[in-house]
Amino acid sequence: MTTNADETPKRPRRRAPAGAAVLREDVTEAIRAAVFEELAAVGYARMSIEGIARRAGVGKTAVYRRWRSKLHLVLDVVSALAVLGLPVPDTGSLEGDLRLLYGITSRALRHPVASQIIPDLQAEAARSPEIAEALQKAVRDGQDSVASKIVAAAEQRGEVRSGVDTDLALDLISGPLYWRSVVIRSPKLPKNHLDDLARATAAALAAL
């Protein structure tokens, strides 16, 4: 006859984590994609968690498990743009690198979704410091990372002077295209505009 003391103690069975503890990545990505679509369709002010959930094909609970409010959801999605980055051009010349960068950036800014979302978020940024900070990070970090590498490569090739003012150089590179595409929202760029802009910017950087 055995006693309880002789029995090998059984390990407690590991419980599967509750549903709230497991966040499926495909659902998260579907919600993020729905945010962009909803922003483009109705704007930030009219956007709702209900609308996002409906567009993503999930329940509101799935959204609230990940973000506690509409503001935090949008901040997360906008901030995520910063880490996506842009490809760093490597054409062998400053003007060539600028032309390639302008082509990529112009197409991105003129995408139907982006062209509706960015102005709306800019308007909201005037009322919300949190959105303003996230939007600035998303736009500036991505551009600065690429532009600073373009300037560094040009410096190595001797196309700009050593020790060039990096902040001023970045303003010269990014400012004109954003002015036309985002601020005044020109419906169509003039013929050869990007070629002319790349040539003029390269000359301006060389003159710093």
Uncertain residue ranges: 1-20
Helical residue percent band: 55-70%
Shape: elongated
Rounded to an integer, what's the Rg over CA atoms? 24 Å
Strand runs, count: 0
Secondary-structure element pattern, one letter each: HHHHHHHHH
**Measured distance between first and last alpha carbons:** 94 Å
Provide the structure class. mainly alpha
Largest sheet: none
What is the overall pLDDT average? Answer: 82
Question: How many alpha or pi helices?
Answer: 9
The fraction of residues in strands falls at: under 5%
What does this structure look like?
There is one protein chain. The chain is mainly alpha-helical. It is 68% helix and 0% strand. The protein has helices at residues 25-46, 49-56, 60-64, 70-84, 94-109, 112-125, 129-157, 166-183, 193-207. Helix 1 packs across helix 6 (112-125). The longest helix is centred in the last third of the chain and has 29 residues, at 129-157. The chain is elongated and about 55 Å long. The model is unreliable at 1-20 (pLDDT under 50).
Question: What keywords describe this structure?
Answer:
single chain, 208 residues, mainly alpha, 9 helices, 68% helix, disordered N terminus
Topology, pairings included?
Elements: H1 25-46, H2 49-56, H3 60-64, H4 70-84, H5 94-109, H6 112-125, H7 129-157, H8 166-183, H9 193-207
Helix pairs in contact: 1-2, 1-6, 4-7, 5-7, 5-8, 5-9, 6-7, 7-8, 8-9
Quick synopsis:
The protein has 208 residues and is mainly α. 68% of the residues lie in helices and 0% in strands.
